[in-house]
Amino acid sequence: MKTLRSLWALPFLLAAAPAAHAEYGLNFPPPATPIAREIYDVHMLTMGISTLLLMGVFGVVFFAIWKFRKSRGYQPDQNFHKTWFGTWSWIIVPAMVLGVDLTIAGSAQQILERLWVVPEQEGMLDVKVTGHQWYWEYEYMDAGIRVESRALPEDQAPDGLYLRDVDNRLVLPTHRPVRFLHTSADVNHAMWVPALGFKKDAIPGYITETWAEIDTEGVYRGQCAELCGTWHAKMPIVVEAVSEEKFTTWVADAKAAQAAAAAEAAADKEWSMADLMEKGKGLYNTKCASCHQINGEGLAPAFPALKGSALTVGPIEPHIDIVLNGKPGSAMPPWKGLLNDLEIAAIVTYERNAWGNDTGDAVQPRDVKALR
Ligand SMILES: [Cu+2]
Fold first, then answer.
1. How close is the Cα of 304 to the center of ligand 1, in Å?
2. How far is the CA of 225 from the centre of ligand 1 (A)?
3. How far apart are CA 236 and CA 161, in angstroms?
4. Three-class SS state of 302
5. Residue 188 CB partners (closer than 8 Å, separation 6+)
């Protein structure tokens, strides 16, 4: 009873906390593709029809309850079922309802077909979307650009956007069809951006496709929609739709940055301890800390501590090896394909010297290369 009574306060509480529900309006987020807009329209049509029916039915019911009440001397009709309407209404009314249902289903079917059948078209942009525990990876197949996208930690996320904002957005052009190729590197995930009109599972070992042609520039938010483990909630998706010109510039910049990073890693340079530690700290905090924690203490029993662990203060080679190849059958992924030699050298150096590990080892990119 007490709980029920305090429920009265709920609407007022919600109204008083605008920051907490800043993103939620009364309806679905505005759609950003023609198909998503049609889905939205079917939804509105359905809502309209059901609202009218609801008002009609309730109107008749309330009117009848009031008008024909017992206190005015009315008696229940004992013979209604014997009238023509009493006999046939059981068929006519459901048939009308079915008619409305089929009308809605018919238009929904047409829209879904266009949504799920990827058109064969020249000039499509192919983006491979891979779900990872717990971040998204976007690969622009033609440009050869790879982007990792992670939720911003609570202290870096803008107000009201914790678990809704990421470090690197999925940048897409408007007025150009994009084909998404969905897959996963570990467990099932699902890509869901409501404004694009679809939700699609990411299944390890399979590649499935969807598509979208965004016609409105803007930022569209979504999230992983398949329970995928401890930090399922930390997999937001942020799509930034920009003009074709802006997209071309973005592609050029991303390619240049990627080439510069590769060249830096390939250069046969001896890196100083300070440089390795600085690079390693940034990389560790974004890529490893979700499991092993910022303080290196892990999260027992799932994720081992790296502070003072046998591998991080023991010989260097097995340490590099587990980072390169992961540990099959555990949540520790292989980083071989995701990090270059310099990045792995920096992370391993950081792990061997942070949190009081103090081994004094400065691991060089060539040490990693030798074990690849
Ligand atoms: Cu997920």
1. 22
2. 7
3. 10
4. coil
5. 131, 201, 202, 203, 204, 226, 228
Please choose, from the candidates 228, 236, 234, 189, the residue with its C-alpha nearest in 3D space to the C-alpha of residue 331: 228
Q: How far is the CA of 226 from the centre of ligand 1 (A)?
A: 6
Distance 365 CA to ligand 1 centre (A): 32
- Mention the CATH class of domain 267-371: mainly alpha
Q: Is 19 strand, coil or helix?
A: helix
CA distance 159 to 157: 6
Residue 186 CA to residue 174 CA, distance in Å, equals 31
- 125-258 CATH fold: Immunoglobulin-like (2.60.40)
DSSP state of 162: T
pLDDT tens by residue, the chain, 372 residues: 445 555 555 555 555 544 444 456 788 889 999 999 999 998 998 899 889 989 999 999 999 999 999 999 998 888 888 899 889 999 998 999 898 889 888 888 999 999 999 998 888 999 999 999 899 999 999 999 999 999 998 888 898 899 999 999 999 999 999 999 999 998 999 999 999 999 999 999 999 999 999 999 999 999 999 999 989 999 999 999 999 999 999 999 999 998 888 888 887 788 999 999 999 999 999 889 989 999 999 988 889 999 999 999 999 999 999 999 999 888 899 999 889 999 999 999 999 999 999 999 999 999 999 998
Q: What pTM was computed for the model? A: 0.79
Find the 60 Cα to ligand 1 centroid distance in Å.
Answer: 48
Asked if 372 contacts 336 with a C-beta cutoff of 8 angstroms, the reply is yes
Q: How far is the CA of 209 from the centre of ligand 1 (A)?
A: 17
What is the Å distance from ligand 1's center to 193 Cα? 13
Residue ranges covered by each domain of the chain: 34-69+78-116, 125-258, 267-371
Query: Could you give the CA distance from residue 308 to residue 297 in angstroms, rounded to a whole number?
Result: 9
In this structure, are residues 191 and 131 in contact, taking their beta carbons and an 8 Å threshold? yes
Q: What distance in Å separates the CA atoms of residue 205 and residue 372, rounded to the nearest whole number?
A: 24
Distance of CA 94 from the midpoint of ligand 1 (Å):
42
Which residue type is seen at 158? P
